[in-house]
Amino acid sequence: VRCLSLVAQTRQQKLLARRQPVAASSVLHFQVVNDTVQVEFADSSTSDLPNLWLRDNCQCEKCYSKSAQARIALFKHLDLNTHPVHVQENQNGSITVEWND
């Protein structure tokens, strides 16, 4: 199972927060639509996160080295036909994505 935390999305929202206050960045709702996962955050903001972007930014231990803070999996090995087979909301306000590969 390969999972994704929304760390990158949270960082982006923190940058936007400098321009306008953000109440919370936890996931309120999501839905899988075509090639994206549409996410609604607790502050009412929304993002359409493309499957390829999500897969490339996977933070699981097979794809990402926490000690090096870098991707282990090479982009050239990314399957362009990858897609989520299961997406789940977690109690901590994040989502977990299980991929077909």
Automatic annotation (TrEMBL):
Q: Name one GO molecular function term.
A: metal ion binding
Tell me the keywords, alphabetical order: Dioxygenase, Iron, Metal-binding, Oxidoreductase
Annotated ranges, domain Gamma-butyrobetaine hydroxylase-like N-terminal = 33-101
Q: Known InterPro entries for this protein?
A: GBBH-like_N (IPR010376), GBBH-like_N_sf (IPR038492)
* Cofactor(s) needed by this chain: Fe(2+)
Please report which protein family the annotation says this sequence is part of. Belongs to the gamma-BBH/TMLD family.
Q: What is this protein called?
A: Gamma-butyrobetaine hydroxylase-like N-terminal domain-containing protein
